[in-house]
Hints:
It contains four helices and 14 strands. Strands 1, 2, 3, 4, 5, 6, 7, 10, 11, 12, 13 and 14 form a twelve-stranded mixed beta sheet that branches. The two termini are 18 Å apart. The longest helix is centred in the first third of the chain and has 14 residues, at 25-38. It is 16% helix and 41% strand. It has two domains: 11-76, no CATH class; 79-197, Tumour Suppressor Smad4. By secondary structure, the protein is an alpha+beta fold. It is globular.
Amino acid sequence: MTIRKGEAWGGPGGLPAGGVVVADDAEAGAVVERARRAGDPVPPMGLLAGDLCRTLGGTGDEARLRSPEGLRATVDLGCVLVDGAQHWFVAHLVARRSWWRGTVFAAMNAEWIGAWDVAPRGHPNDGSLDLVTADLSPRDRGKAWRRLPQGTHVPHPGIVERRVSAVQLDLQPPCGVWLDGRRLPGRARTLSIRVEPDALTVVV
Length: 204
């Protein structure tokens, strides 16, 4: 059930039967893609590393994942139509021409992208994605990048952060798209992004 303010979330429990251990966000996203395209349920996943794992306080201890000391939780999933082709992401979607020019879009299910605390107020089971849109001058872009590890890049007039359950983005000019750190081939013109609440069971 989607988390509500003041309520407990997750609980003790190891990886259940049929669960799989994944090394990072990209591997978790690939597990989701295979299951969805085959029409199968997505198996529970034990997270060893990655931005979703870090957001949930994971330790990278595989023995913990298989023990009652693990934290078992339900999280949301991102879904996107990229020029009409469907994909999924567990941690984040990034669309950009370059980090240093043009608008950067990030749809966040996790709090982090690597060392950057992109969505410090987000939660991976709040029934929404944090959409961060940055359109900055080169000078301000450098300042924002330096503040990202501490999550102090917002508020800023050139950075808009909002929570969405679904959103349509028209990318002009077309941009590269990264899902959980994996770049999709080519450049995209349109993105139709939505959240799938309570879609995954994970253990950290």
